[in-house]
Amino acid sequence: PTLLSVEGLTKSYGGVHAVRGVSFELRAGEILALIGPNGAGKSTCFDMLNGQNIPDSGRIRVLGAETTGKKPRVIWRMGVGRTFQIAATFPTMTVRENVQVALVSHGQQLFNLWASTARHARDEAGRLLDLVGMGAYAERPCGELAYGDVKRLELAIALANQPKLLLMDEPTAGMAPRERVELMRLTARIAREQSIGVLFTEHDMDVVFEHADRILVLNRGTLIAEGSPEEVRGNA
Ligand code: ADP
Ligand code: ADP
C-alpha cells in the first residue's frame, strides 16, 4: 500500500528553483534514500514533507490524507516522525526521562492528566529503549552517552508517536563507519517489523547502496534517476 505520495512538488526562492516537479511514492516498510549533491534540494524536500516549509505547488499525501502546507505539529500527529541532524536531547536527564519527555510533550497529553498514566509513559519509554537496544542505558544521564548511542536514543524518541512514516535527515552524519551500519540495520529492522516507511538523506554512498530499497537522485531540484541500488549504481 502507498504510504507517502508526492506529486509535482515545487519550491522556488526568488529565481532559484530549489525543488521542481518532484513526484514519487513510498510504500509501508520501504526504505527510500534521497541523494544528490549540495544544493540539489534535499533539505527543501524534507522541510516540505515535515511542514517546516510550504510548497509553491504540488501535493503531499500520507496514507491518503493531504498534509500539504500543514503545520509540523499537525503532520506529526498524522503519523509522520522525524529525527534531527543535531540531537535535541536533554543531557542532564536520564535516557529514559528523555523518551518520557517526548511521549508527554509530543501531544500524548493523557500522560499528564493521571498519575497512573505517568507509569504508563515510563513503561512505554522502557519498551522503546529496548526496541533500539538501549534498555541497559535507561537510568544513565543522557550527557554521558557516546554519539552513536545518542543517535539510537533519537530513533527511540522519533518512534514515540508510533509514526507510519519516518523522515531521517542525514541520520549517520558524524558517526564512525561501523556505527553507521549498526544504526541503519536497526532502522531497517524496525521499519520492516512495524511496516514503517523511511525516507532518508545520506552523503555516504556505501550506506545508501547497502541499506536503501530504492534510491531517488535529485539534481538542481529535479529527480534525474530512480531505482534499486543495483539500477542506480549501474547508471552512475
Ligand atoms: P540540499 O539539501 O540538497 O543541499 P537545499 O534544499 O538546501 O539543497 O537547497 C536547494 C537550493 O535552494 C539551493 O540552491 C539553496 O541555496 C536554495 N535555498 C534553500 N533554502 C533557501 C532559502 N531559505 N532561501 C534561499 N534559497 C534557498
Ligand atoms: P544540508 O544540505 O547539509 O542538509 P543545507 O545546505 O541544505 O544543509 O542547509 C540547511 C538549511 O539552510 C535548510 O533549512 C535550507 O533551507 C537553508 N538554506 C540553504 N541554502 C540557503 C540559502 N541560499 N539561503 C537561505 N537559506 C538556505
From TrEMBL:
GO terms for molecular function: ATP binding; ATP hydrolysis activity; L-isoleucine transmembrane transporter activity; L-phenylalanine transmembrane transporter activity; L-valine transmembrane transporter activity. Keywords: ATP-binding, Nucleotide-binding, Transport. Pfam families: ABC_tran (PF00005), BCA_ABC_TP_C (PF12399). GO terms for cellular component: plasma membrane. Residues 4-236 form the ABC transporter domain. GO terms for biological process: D-alanine transmembrane transport; L-alanine transport; L-isoleucine import across plasma membrane; L-valine import across plasma membrane. PANTHER family: AMINO ACID ABC TRANSPORTER ATP-BINDING PROTEIN, CONSERVED COMPONENT OF ABC TRANSPORTER FOR NATURAL AMINO ACIDS-RELATED. Involved in beta-(1-->2)glucan export. Transmembrane domains (TMD) form a pore in the inner membrane and the ATP-binding domain (NBD) is responsible for energy generation. This is Amino acid/amide ABC transporter ATP-binding protein 1 (HAAT family).
